[in-house]
Design a protein that fits this description.
Helix 2 packs parallel to helix 7. Strands 1, 2, 3, 4, 7, 10, 11, 12 and 13 form a 9-stranded mixed beta sheet that branches. About 25% of the residues lie in helices and about 30% in strands. The longest helix is centred in the N-terminal third of the chain and has 16 residues. It folds into 2 domains: about 90 residues, Pseudouridine synthase (2-Layer Sandwich); about 130 residues, Pseudouridine synthase (2-Layer Sandwich). Strand 2 and strand 3 form a beta hairpin. It contains 7 helices and 13 strands. The mean pLDDT is about 90. The protein is elongated and about 65 Å long. It is α+β, with helices and mostly antiparallel strands. The N and C termini lie close together (about 10 Å).
Length: about 230
């Protein structure tokens, strides 16, 4: 990686660790670039947010490549993870504690297969209230945390592929390929509801975004080492 690469603009693939926000990664990369290049500011952005409790592929655009963010975000995404049936949280993942329990004894493999098939294709999905969805210029999670009720309109999304592995029931391991705007936490919620129960997303990893694959990604630390080793004369 050379100084000229950065100045011309580039896109890097980061394997985001658990516990980091997408903005944490952006800020870390930006700070190290500014320090190495000796500049006051440089444009750095990401093409598609990952929640703190999710890991995996985060596409980071630097310099002139930030103009490509919208087009990069438009691509299909692939995720793997685990859903726990029978319990829910207000945000549909483990960021908040469980708040309710539901029966699961009635759930059969046949029911799960029917739900899987019903969810493939174009569907309407209501985003989680604890999300970055914009409502009158405010983030939905800010409104929710203020204790105000929110009614979010459903988005039209597409589920291209959905694999559900019930070998560890009541945990369901999944792989899903879906359109931009799909909330996997909401997908977990809907699977639970369609099964006459509840569900929580307990693990999530993004493995693909558009044409970019997790196999091409490097850790934050690896990218920082690369930035520190920048050839400033090229």
């Amino acid at each position: 990686m050379k100084k000229s690469d950065i100045l011309d603009g580039m896109t890097i693939l980061v394997d985001k660790p658990l516990g980091w926000t997408s903005f944490d990664v952006v800020n870390k990369i930006r700070w190290n670039l500014k320090r190495k290049l000796g500049v006051k500011n440089i444009k750095v952005g990401h093409a598609g947010t990952l929640d703190p409790l999710a890991s995996g592929l985060l596409v980071i655009c630097i310099g002139k490549h930030t103009k490509q963010i919208e087009s990069l975000m438009a691509g299909k995404k692939t995720y793997t993870g685990t859903i726990l049936l029978g319990k829910t949280t207000p945000c549909f993942d483990l960021e908040k504690p469980f708040d309710a329990e539901y029966p699961i004894d009635h759930i059969t493999p046949q029911m799960i297969e029917k739900v899987r098939l019903d969810l493939i294709g174009e569907i309407d999905q209501v985003p989680p209230v604890f999300s970055a969805k914009q409502i009158d210029g405010k983030r939905a999670y800010d409104i929710a945390r203020a204790g105000k009720e929110i009614e979010l309109k459903p988005n039209r999304i597409t589920i291209d592929e959905l694999d559900l592995d019930i070998a560890r029931f009541p945990e369901i391991d999944f792989k899903v390929t879906c359109s931009k705007g799909t909330y996997i936490r909401a997908l977990a919620r809907d699977i639970g509801a369609l099964l006459g129960s509840g569900a929580t997303l307990i693990a999530l990893r993004r493995t693909r975004s558009g044409d970019q694959d997790i196999s091409q990604a490097r850790s934050v630390d690896d990218w920082i080492v690369g930035i520190q080793a920048l050839d400033m004369n090229a």
